[in-house]
Design goal:
By secondary structure, the chain is mainly α. It is 74% helix and 0% strand.
């Protein structure tokens, strides 16, 4: 095992342990977290540290390891992304009556509060743009690049499952893992994290928008 891969696995493993430890001790978070300015601020700080560690692990070959390049074909990337989006949505609709995954993470409010629009906009930016980019750079970028020498299927499955576990959730784990595997499939077929980021950002944006408009 390479030193980079060992460092990445240790980093992701620590995140998983901290996530589940936090959930076990603190329980489910407030569903109105996106209406607090602290949510956006803490998210930005968290993802800045997160990205910093990724950059340290990938130093010397960051652009290549993080797959920061154009996809082989934007048309192909669009078609594959559409299939992944449909597949994950179908799975989510099938599991929602049983698991209610949207309620577990505490980032989907139950109604719109106009008085907190500013804080919501800041949280929206952090959750829809900053978070997905950092997570894609971590899992479909660095993680996939380090694992793909051991086989594309292993890279897709392992980064997908680890991505799901890294959120520290239980009920939402099947959907998060499926989304992670789907995003890894996009990465494998397009050789770029840009389509993965777009799909990831779209899912987060839809979830937040539907939460305050339905």
């Amino acid at each position: 095992m390479s030193g980079r891969l060992a460092a990445w696995l240790a980093f992701v493993g620590a995140q998983i342990l901290l996530g589940y430890a936090s959930r076990a001790t603190q329980g489910k978070p407030d569903r109105d977290l996106v209406y607090h300015w602290s949510t956006a601020l803490l998210s930005i700080v968290y993802y800045a540290v997160f990205l910093g560690i990724v950059l340290v692990i990938s130093r010397g070959n960051t652009r290549n390891l993080l797959a920061l390049r154009r996809p082989r074909s934007w048309g192909k990337a669009l078609g594959i992304s559409a299939l992944v989006i449909v597949g994950v949505i179908v799975l989510e609709l099938a599991l929602d009556p049983l698991l209610h995954p949207d309620r577990e993470q505490g980032l989907t409010p139950t109604h719109w509060e106009a008085s907190h629009a500013g804080a919501f906009a800041a949280s929206f930016a952090a959750i829809v743009f900053i978070g997905p980019f950092v997570e894609e750079a971590t899992f479909r970028g660095l993680g996939f690049s380090l694992l793909v020498p051991y086989g594309s299927v292993l890279a897709m499955l392992s980064t997908g499952v680890l991505f799901g576990l890294a959120h520290g959730l239980v009920e939402a784990l099947p959907i998060l893992a499926a989304l992670g595997i789907g995003l890894a499939y996009i990465r494998a077929r397009t050789d770029s994290i840009y389509p993965c980021f777009a799909v990831h950002a779209l899912f987060n944006a839809i979830a937040l928008t539907l939460a305050v408009t339905t």
